[in-house]
Amino acid sequence: MTHGPMDRRTFLKRSARVGAGAAAVGLAAGLGAGPLLRRLERPWDVAPFPPPGTPPVAVVRAASYEVDLESVILDGLLAVGADLRGRSVLLKPNLVEYDPGTVVNTDPRVVAATVLAVRRLGARTVVVGEGPGHRRDTAYVLRSSRLLEALDAVDAPFVDLNTAAAVRVPLQSHFTDLRELCLPEPVTSADVVVSMPKMKTHHWAGATLSLKNCFGCVPGRVYGWPKNVLHWAGLEDAIVDVAAAVRSGLQVVDGIVGMEGNGPIDGTPIASGLLVFGTDPVATDVTAAALMGLDPGRIGYLHDASRFLGQGDRERIRQVGEDPERSAVSFAVLPQFEGLRVGPGR
Amino acid sequence: MSAELHARLSSRLEASRTGDGFGPRAGLPPEPEPTALAAIALDDEDARAWLLDHQRADGGFALVVGTVVNDSATGLAALALPPGDAREQALDHLASHRAPSMPYQPLVPYDPDTRGWGWTPDTFGWVEPTARALAALRALRPTETALIADGLAVLADRECADGGWNYGTRAVFGDDMPAFGQTTAAALIGVQHADPALATRGATALRRLWREERGGLTLAMAVAALRLLVDPDAGEAETALGEALDGGDLDDDPVALGWATIATGPGLDALRGSA
Question: Does domain B3-271 have CATH number 2.60.40.1180?
Fold first, then answer.
């Protein structure tokens, strides 16, 4: 067995390809070689990605999951100008797996309340969909996580994106060499895909928010359990390409209780009491990362996405609701991500 | 083994057919994995014909999207095919498409001397595709002792601290990861009696896990694994599988129905390893 030494760059590159995948770039030292090289390139088609303008992002307080979440979420959606009248809506929560005692997933109460709020905004149809990334037995995950119970209570259907009918979609960004993606028809046919991540640290990418949550849209029957081929394509590059294909038009980030430390699976709950709403996934994630005490500009995929997919300049994001600066809750990170943090630790 | 349950499962699986093959959902275009499972489960010539029509030039069976080639169904397809060139080519594909060796790194520990099989070639070896390849080689080409030993070594290496397997990561950043029922069953279908100590620990874990994780796919694969191991829990797990069927957990899921039909019928003999 060879356990020889390797330099940091080699270590990071190889780490990116194993286990649940890895970020490799943008860690403690900020941006790595990949993004720096790509500054000389423009790996996306121009026409599909118009300039982002000044999108709104709302930070809303919710002390617990016991509050009137439907009203809180409705207020948040109204604050960012969500226009869902007559539209078909797919809610895409994070339901990667189930482990009792952890906060891996978007809380089912947030999902159910969002169903109700979206209906109140006049949506024509509302479907909840996810392709769990670690578990093939979706029926088990749905039931054990209590998402099924929550959806039954609001009479909302669930579709397993791992097995749904799917189409091939040519990529319009080219950070990876994937060229095209298999995307479920419930994703491609929805007028609005609502990305609903849990606010979590991520032990390879720094943070997992609405862009990374789009990984759950691609089917495991093509990409595996876990969807490791996306990590091999370059995790941060794949996050950008998949998110650019999914084009979430609305985001609801569940940070009422988030996850810090060794996220996205084995971290520690952190009660930040916040929900984040937006219509631009880059602006939403930039704001959410800042709320976690992370510098969005040092998260490699956020840096890349902000070049074409949405607004990454915090000066050009219209913040409504709570003041993000005052609301920030510094999430603990693994030692190798200390370089992502802003300001003093807790 | 309940003939009545097997008949119901067979009927439900048959009803999910799309043309000659089976898709990931009833009515969807056929794909290699559900078609291979159905061919084994129903001893179905039409499904075998679909497989033969869709074997790739490299002997594999794959879903291809862009540059992604998921050939993880090849082991199942080999088990479904009759003796002959097509089956041998599928086995050749397994022999030539193992996951690459990876250097050791401590954050996600694994034995770098093992390889196994991935969901896609040239990536990392994972539990379920490794178990499929292992089952096929042990049943159909037991002379591939080095490949079989590698597959067993991968599964032994990835065993979780509390017994059993998840998708293939036993620890991350120093934290032990839990085992899952479905992947534990998948691994045991690959191991069977080839490594008695590993199988015994895995079966112990599975007896706990199937009771906690009563999803249709988990129960279907658990019954298959327990029956292959001649485990006394098989009957109770089969009863739970019947309840899951009645509760709708296997509705419109040809993969889960395929495993359940195999687990409760004579198709299971196709998976019995001789090595």
Answer: no
